[in-house]
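Repro case for the chain-ordering regression, as requested:
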Amino acid sequence: MSNAFQIDWDNLGCQIIPTKTMYISKKIGTQAWSEGEFKAFGKIELSPAAQVLNYGQGIFEGLKAQRTKSGSVVLFRHEDNARRFLQSALSMSMPPFPEKKFLSVIEEIVKENINYVPPYKKGVLYIRPCMWGTDEILNVTPANEYTFLTYTTPVGYYLGKGITPIKLDICDTHHRAAPKGMGSTKTIGNYPGAMRFAEQARTNGYKGCLYLDAIENRYIEEAEAANFFCVKDNVLYTPALGTIMPGITRDSVIQITKNILNIPVVEKSISIDEALSADECFCTGTLASIVSVGLLNYKNRQVIFNNFEVGDITKKIMEILIGIQLCEIENQFSWIHTLE
Ligand SMILES: *Cc1c(COP(=O)(O)O)cnc(C)c1O
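-- result from build under test --
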């Protein structure tokens, strides 16, 4: 455990800073989930034959707690994370973790580690609930014992450092997901397969990759862990759900754009050509909220968007989303949960 009072809040990055406690609960066989406990943040013991280490029965979520200007601590749409976690468990033949219990663990862990929630606009306390099959198993079957663990770590505020657009490479040599596969499940196995392609792109100066659909290799799906949007002629486009992650930020952006900005939103397949001829592009995810894309590369064809500056519509959506998340904009949504 690090001492929260020694953290340099002005220079938070995205490395793991150990916090005070993590929460663990277990489920064995047909028994209910154990009451669970908060323990000092630290290492856990696993058998080398643990299901998750060998056959990958593992799911996770990612959410954030933030401090508002008045100093209160707020969660953003955590009920949606609970729901998605249930869906992921179902997809991975894992037992459901009760939604109510999930929500109270999230609240409690933030309270336990409240000193690690960064000051206003310095960053967020990232919350990572996980579930793994943890008993020893040789056959490729679901585990008989599961561990639910949630930890937290303070992470730097992407936006405090300015909003420089990123460059992305469109990857046509790897598909992260296929129809009827696991693309919409937040499961651990979905990420490592893409890493060598993303690493290659980073070597070439890009921030990461956008992956294409597995059937025609022609439609943009999403980045490793972020959804994709583009603006053309004052309409916002984003790939339809199916093989992509149903991002909670993605849904928030769609609702803000339609209902607050009154800009039409179309969820459909977006071809490479459509993306390359867009006026603005951006990606969304919990940690960064919205990241403007200033350049896309496809097979040595580079396209710059909006002179490599954040586009007007992107900027408006960004301001509203962040304003809502920090309780600074009145709105019709009930997305904020304030901790007592
Ligand atoms: C988590 C994730 C996202 C973003 O989802 P949010 O709910 O907005 O954080 C997008 N794509 C993938 C593949 C992800 O794992």
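Ordering looks correct now. The chain has a mean pLDDT of 96.
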